[in-house]
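User: Just a sanity check before I run the rest of the batch. Below are the structure tokens for the first item. I only need the designed sequence back.
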């Protein structure tokens, strides 16, 4: 038997003003997207913003449904819309935030496993790493690849 380790690297910022300009704009768009969330059951609003290779930004928000799990997470709404509207442009980055009662959460809102798997597929389509920016009222984390969230992805196809 051989024991192995996985190391995950990310950058942590205390303020959006410290982010590179394009990441700051993307985070602001994700925050704005929380306002279009439909979350009458959980009261938890999530916004996502996707930066495309052509410079376009596509946003999405979580959309709940009484027939759970028929709703959809913000990340998948944004990524599916991005691929539909710009099928030949690769995804470069995605920003994700959560809010409650119109206030950004103090803790980070990480994507669920289903969303991470969709991000893995998007990264595979792009042929290059996709940066992940996860924001909160307290701090912001930036990962340079989806691999930091799911190092053993379902991607052997």
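Assistant: Here's the designed sequence for the first item:
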């Amino acid at each position: 038997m051989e024991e192995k380790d996985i190391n995950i690297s990310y950058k942590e910022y205390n303020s959006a003003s410290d982010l590179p300009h394009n990441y700051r704009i993307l985070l602001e768009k994700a925050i704005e997207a929380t306002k279009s969330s439909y979350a009458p059951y959980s009261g938890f609003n999530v916004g996502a913003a996707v930066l495309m290779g052509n410079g376009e930004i596509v946003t999405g928000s979580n959309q709940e449904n009484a027939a759970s799990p028929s709703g959809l997470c913000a990340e998948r709404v944004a990524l599916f819309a991005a691929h539909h509207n710009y099928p030949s442009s690769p995804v470069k980055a995605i920003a994700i935030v959560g809010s409650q009662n119109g206030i950004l959460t103090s803790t980070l809102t990480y994507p669920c496993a289903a969303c991470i798997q969709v991000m893995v597929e998007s990264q595979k389509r792009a042929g290059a790493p996709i940066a992940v920016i996860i924001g909160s009222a307290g701090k912001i984390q930036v990962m340079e690849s989806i691999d930091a969230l799911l190092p053993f992805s379902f991607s052997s196809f």
